[in-house]
Amino acid sequence: MRSHLLRTGAACLAAGAALLLTGTPASAAGVPWSVGHGTATAQGTRGVQQDPGDFLPSLVILGELSNTGDGCSSVWFQFNHDLAPGPAFRHATQCGPGTTPIEFRTAYRPTTTGSAFVCEGTTREKCGERRTVTSWPVQQGVTTD
Question: Rounded to the nearest 10 degrees, how much is the dihedral formed by the CA atoms of 92, 144, 85, 119?
């Protein structure tokens, strides 16, 4: 009986947190983010989105990586889920002048933190400053249409 009450309470708490985090509709504008290094800039919007049938919301990051130089530049992200750090991953690379779209989603919980950064080339040897993509007000919705 006691474990049943604990499970029920935990489920209610998680559902309440999800509702609080997704306080605006998915059609609202996202929160702006930007990072840069050298001749490249990555920028766009971020926000949470609650899809029908999903128990918890997703963090949705949209934008573009722009490069004005001749070399390659990459945008990287790294997330911590439930206080456990995940590996940094390269999401997009732009070689030469031009732009590359950025669009992805990841699970979002109250303990999720993450950062974005731009590096020269395709490795993490020469990188710019990391900037958070999960600071408040992350709860604003984002349009993915």
Answer: 20
Rounded to whole angstroms, what are the CA distances from 68 to 36, 37, 62, 95? 12, 11, 20, 9
Distance from C-alpha of 125 to C-alpha of 130, rounded to nearest angstrom = 13
Structure-block tokens of residue 143: 């349009």
Q: Using alpha carbons only, how large is the chain's radius of gyration in Å?
A: 17
Q: Distance between terminal CA atoms of the chain?
A: 46
Whole-number Å distance between alpha carbons of 128 and 41:
10
pLDDT tens for the chain, 145 residues: list them.
555 444 444 444 444 443 334 333 343 468 999 999 999 999 999 999 988 888 889 999 999 999 999 999 999 999 998 888 999 999 999 999 999 999 999 888 888 899 999 999 999 999 999 999 988 665 555 555 5
3-class secondary-structure state, position 143 = coil
Give bridge partners of residue 41 from the DSSP assignment: 36, 66
> What does the DSSP 8-state code read for residue 39?
T
pTM of structure: 0.74
Mapping DSSP to helix (H, G, I), strand (E, B) and coil, where does residue 125 land? coil
85: β partners: 80
